[in-house]
Amino acid sequence: MNESSSFKSGLEILSRILIRCFVLGAVFITLWFIFFLVGGELGYTMHAKWFQISRHEYDLLNYYGMAFVKGCNFLFFLFPYIAIRMVLRRKRE
């Protein structure tokens, strides 16, 4: 195995890891959203006992948390995956 094919196989493995991480992140965000919709009131009452937080603040924290995780998921997993796939496609040509 020469250096070029070793580099290419390393990029292939890394791209597979990145897309799996992206999918797991998307599943996590989806589950968070479902739990927030279904159990939002229970979650709020539980957190309101521990912290002085209004319902509006609780909703905002969940919304911003989901947006932050979603942004990180795209930034750290999907965009590098796309870049690696573009490099691999260019190497094939």
Fold and architecture overview:
The chain is mostly helical and 93 residues long. It has one domain (3-92). It contains three helices and no strands. It has helices at residues 3-38, 40-50, 55-92. Helix 1 (3-38) runs antiparallel to helix 3. The longest helix has 38 residues, at 55-92. It starts with a helix and ends with a helix. 2% of the residues are buried.
Low-confidence stretches: none
Mean pLDDT: 92
Helical fraction equals: over 70%
In N-to-C order, the SSE pattern is HHH
Radius of gyration computed on alpha carbons = 20 Å
Largest β sheet strand count, sense and barrel closure:
none
Please give the number of β-strands.
0
Number of helical regions: 3
How many distinct folded domains?
1
Proportion of residues in extended strands? under 5%
- What class do helices, strands and sheet pairing give? mainly alpha
Global geometry: rod-shaped
Determine the N-to-C terminus distance: 20 Å
Quick take:
The chain has 93 residues and is mostly helical.
Give a quick set of tags describing it.
mainly alpha, rod-shaped, 93 residues
List the helices and strands and how they pair.
Blueprint: H1 3-38, H2 40-50, H3 55-92
Helix pairs in contact: 1-3
